[in-house]
Design goal:
The chain is an alpha+beta fold. It contains seven helices and 14 strands.
Length: 302
């Protein structure tokens, strides 16, 4: 009985380790089709549902994001789109040349954040297309990625939740100390040992948040729950669904706008050459007589 129970115990343990390995190797976001948007965290507030229960709400200024590059399976080996969000000045000349023709702004302006997302279909996607907050709707479940707040150097009590030492005799200045860090025979600290160090300022993900409301006019996305990061920090929102790209009139290159200006000038020149005597006729036309001149003319006739 003991041998059988031990074998069964080891088999259960092996199955547990296999399941854990599968979870560790599984991708973080296993969406069949994914819609996404970039934004910044605004603030937190609270709201009430239909049952009168209060919930914490995080407001995110999402989009619009501009498509800066489209990658295809034939050229790059995978299908993806690169989007830019935010503005910054004094960018490098290489980025300015790469962004030329996407937006009708100064060449010294560029995107502050640029991210790449895998998509299924990129046939209808072009540079300059935009992703707006309208891609999401109330009730959607999304995953949010952000950068947690940096807290500087922290001890083991704050960083790992250690209980510390008892405040009794013989524990002078040891209340929040980590204690022993390992055996002496190893002669080095093992990797992964929980110790004091830099805390926060790392990528953090929150799953299964609910979209409460979508403000299309202001471009604000309200999510139920907390989102990692400080105010005005970059937030990536991903959800189940097909990515929607809107065609923008701003996606006009300077060459195209210059061509349109040349066409307008040529039309004006053509209109002038079609009636060359028009200006002379206007200048040679006599002005209409005033009321006094008309009265004098009538008296002379009488």
């Amino acid at each position: 009985m003991r041998a059988g129970s031990s074998i069964e115990r080891f088999s259960r343990r092996g199955t547990f380790y296999q399941e854990m390995a599968g979870l560790l190797l599984a991708p973080a976001f296993s969406f069949s089709s994914m819609k996404f948007i970039l934004g910044v965290k605004l603030d937190m507030t609270q709201g009430f549902d239909s049952a009168g229960r209060v919930h914490s709400i995080t407001r995110v200024q999402a989009g619009p994001c501009t498509v800066t590059q489209v990658k295809t399976n034939e050229k790059d080996g995978y299908a993806a789109v690169q989007v830019g969000y935010g503005r910054k000045k004094n960018v490098s000349r290489a980025q300015a040349q790469a962004l030329r023709g996407i937006t009708r702004v100064k060449e010294t302006d560029g995107f502050r954040h640029m991210k790449e997302f895998r998509v299924d279909k990129v046939d209808a996607v072009e540079r300059g297309d935009r992703v707006t907050v309208n891609v999401f709707s109330p009730g959607d479940r999304v995953h949010v990625i952000g950068t947690s707040k940096g807290k500087g150097f922290a001890g083991v009590v704050k960083r790992h939740g250690f209980h510390g030492h008892p405040s009794t005799h013989g524990h002078k200045d040891q209340a929040r100390m980590p204690g022993a860090i390992g055996a002496g025979g190893v002669q080095h600290v093992l990797k992964g040992k929980r110790m004091g160090g830099r805390m926060g300022g790392m990528q953090s993900s929150v799953k299964n948040l609910e979209v409460v409301s979508v403000d299309s006019d202001l471009g604000v996305l309200s999510l139920r729950g907390s989102v990692p990061g400080a105010r005005n920090s970059l937030i990536i929102v991903q959800g189940e669904g097909e990515a929607v790209f809107e065609k923008s009139s701003m996606a006009q290159s300077p060459a195209q706008s210059e061509h349109q200006e040349q066409e307008q000038l040529s039309q004006e020149v053509t209109a002038d050459t079609s009636n060359p005597d028009g200006a002379q006729e206007e200048t040679s036309a006599e002005p209409e007589p005033t009321v006094l001149e008309q009265a004098d003319t009538a008296e002379e006739k009488n």
